UniProtKB/TrEMBL annotation:
Iron-sulfur listed as a keyword: no
Species annotation: Microthyrium microscopicum
GO biological process, one term: protein N-linked glycosylation
InterPro entries registered for this protein in UniProt: Mannan_Polymerase_Subunit, Nucleotide-diphossugar_trans
PANTHER family linked to this entry: MANNAN POLYMERASE COMPLEXES SUBUNIT MNN9 (PTHR43083:SF6), MANNAN POLYMERASE II (PTHR43083)
Protein name: Mannan polymerase complexes MNN9 subunit
Transmembrane segments: 7-27
Length: 373
């Protein structure tokens, strides 16, 4: 007792403060967001089911208490009232832009940000592979997302979803040369199909009218891309993908065809398919597998017609700049990662959509441009 009488009162105060701090450290919930961190979450959904277009952040109960979660809401969506018209801006139709992102190109992002379609009607979705290249692409993408979403409201997108795959890309190199080797096509395209399906099924909500598939290496397109494609009122429609390059023979910039997956089928290709095994796949653009299909890439200016609105019906499509009415995907048209009538991925998607009653179209004289490696 004498020891306590001789102690300085300041010692007791210090001891009480230390005990209080130690108790806070032990019993506070490190996962509970601070009040300041909640200020930016006013656009988060209150429940995982409502609304599905907004991010949902699961909160931990305070101090580990067993607090019953609020009952999920009942939300009614009248999909018959969802429109896909030739004037999507006036009718406030929402567009979901989906991109498998193995590499990040600044030109792609700048082109995306420059689209004239109202950004508050656009949601973005990305799927990024595992691995070093995927990590680099993710870092660059996150930097750009932060800039645009914290910038002027008019330039912000309605929502952005980024998925990371739990498997690595089947190809060690993502160079253009390696990606397009014939022996790599089945494995590469199957992985791409799985990535597309995962992205689609995760991000498409009941308010989505259109889905625009836009490849990450498309660095130039008309700013009115969405309006231009939607104006044709087709269930599936694609632009013609070309590439700008320096022509050494002409000593000047020129263009060349890039996407050969937009085609009209041929009797030769159909005969080749009949001789194939059930798991074999026909690929376009390879001399050792000559199909003699009519490629949209070579229909530019056919019969002197350079009208950018000229349409052709297609049997196969690529995914470089592909606009799809969301109801086509809702009907079950997806990207087969297996041999589907000897087709796979985007070309298999066109075949599956056709089996469901949806036709595909292309615009031979309407261009988007691929990055030139």
């Amino acid at each position: 007792m004498a020891l306590f009488r001789r102690a300085n009162p300041a010692t007791f105060i210090l001891a009480i403060l230390l005990i209080a701090g130690f108790g806070y450290f032990l019993f506070s919930n490190p996962d509970a967001p601070s009040q300041s961190s909640l200020r930016g979450l006013h656009k988060a959904a209150a429940n995982a089911l409502s609304p599905p277009s907004l991010p949902f952040r699961k909160a931990s109960p305070p101090n580990g208490a067993n607090v019953a979660a609020a009952a999920p809401p009942v939300v009614h969506y009248y999909l018959n009232n969802l429109t896909t018209t030739t004037d999507p801006v006036t009718n406030r139709e929402t567009v979901l832009i989906l991109t498998p992102l193995a590499r990040f190109y600044q030109g792609y992002w700048d082109n995306l940000a420059a689209l004239s379609y109202p950004h508050d009607l656009i949601s973005l979705g990305f799927v990024i592979p595992k691995g070093r290249d995927g990590n680099a692409a993710n870092s660059a993408l996150q930097e750009q997302i932060q800039k645009v979403q914290q910038g002027p409201h008019k330039k912000r997108f309605a929502s952005i979803t980024v998925l990371r795959q739990d498997i690595e890309n089947p190809l060690q190199s993502q160079s253009e040369h390696e990606r397009h080797k014939l022996e790599n096509q089945k494995e590469r395209r199957a992985a791409m199909a799985k990535a597309r399906n995962s992205l689609l099924f995760t991000t498409m909500g009941p308010t989505t009218s259109w889905v625009l598939w836009l490849d990450s290496d498309i660095v130039e397109s008309p700013h009115s891309l969405i309006q231009d494609l939607a104006a044709h009122d087709k269930p599936i429609i694609t632009a013609n993908c070309y590439q700008r390059y320096f022509d050494k023979d002409k000593n000047a910039m020129s263009t060349r065809a890039y996407d050969y997956n937009n085609w009209v089928d041929s009797p030769t290709a159909q005969e080749l398919a009949k001789k194939m095994g059930p798991d074999d796949v026909l690929f376009e653009g390879y001399g050792s597998m000559a199909t003699y299909r009519s490629l949209m890439a070579y229909m530019v200016g056919k019969d002197g017609n350079m009208d950018p609105n000229r349409e052709v019906e297609l049997d196969g499509v690529g995914g470089t700049a592909l606009l799809v009415k969301a109801e086509v995907h809702r009907d079950g048209a997806m990207f087969p990662p297996f041999s589907f009538y000897h087709l796979i991925e985007t070309e298999g998607f066109a075949k599956m959509a056709r089996r469901l009653g949806w036709k595909s179209y292309g615009l031979p004289n309407y261009f988007v441009y691929h990055f030139n490696e």
